[in-house]
Amino acid sequence: MGLSCGGKGFLPLLLAATLLAVGQARTLVVGGSEGWRFGVNYTGWAIQNAPFYINDKLVFKYDPPSESGYAYTVYSLPYLGNYVSCDFRRAKLLANETQGGGEGFEVVLSRWRAYYFASDGGDGYHCKDGPMKFIVVPAPRRDD
Ligand SMILES: *[C@@H]1O[C@H](CO)[C@@H](O)[C@H](O)[C@H]1NC(C)=O
Ligand SMILES: *[C@@H]1O[C@H](CO)[C@@H](O)[C@H](O)[C@H]1NC(C)=O
Q1: Which of 97, 91, 81 is nearest to 117 (CA)?
Q2: Looking at the domain covering 25-136, what would its CATH class be?
Q3: Count of CB atoms within 10 A of residue 113's CB?
Q4: Which of 14, 53, 60, 118 is the most exposed place for a label (fewest CB within 10 A)?
Q5: Burial class (CB in 10 A: 0-12, 13-18, 19+), 17
Q6: Whose atoms come closest to the Cα of 134: which ligand?
Q7: 124-143, pLDDT tens digit by residue?
Q8: Ligand sitting nearest the alpha carbon of 98
Q9: Hey, where are the domains in the chain?
Q10: Whose CA is nearest to atom 8 of ligand 2?
């Protein structure tokens, strides 16, 4: 009798601890110590840091525009086609050229969809040749 009583309390406790671990959202600085700049392969970064889950946070950190360089921005592109061709006509500006300073600009991956991120600097040059673009598809958490 005593044993079954103890068992009743133990199992829910163990389950709750497991769900908590799985449900922990991450905060990731895009590009790690490199931040968000020209010349970093962000597809490689995304692959290294996969899998992403819903409610994970991405932080874009970048310098404000300098006289020698183009301004960095963060855009969300609607479709894969726009992403591949770096077509910003229907893109949504998430962070302008100054919003990457300080603690950076935070994007919560709140939905189960593909996110296409890119910088539009230099009339598409950053996106095409940087290549300042990457895709993440956050997966639902086990407890969602
Ligand atoms: C970036 O890294 C990915 C994955 O490692 C690779 O497939 C791709 O060719 C790289 N892109 C460039 C422009 O180097
Ligand atoms: C960037 O956005 C911030 C916050 O909305 C705003 O205060 C600032 O004026 C904007 N900068 C430019 C260059 O548009």
Answers
A1: 91
A2: mainly beta
A3: 11
A4: 14
A5: exposed
A6: 1
A7: 899 999 999 999 999 997 66
A8: 2
A9: 25-136
A10: 98
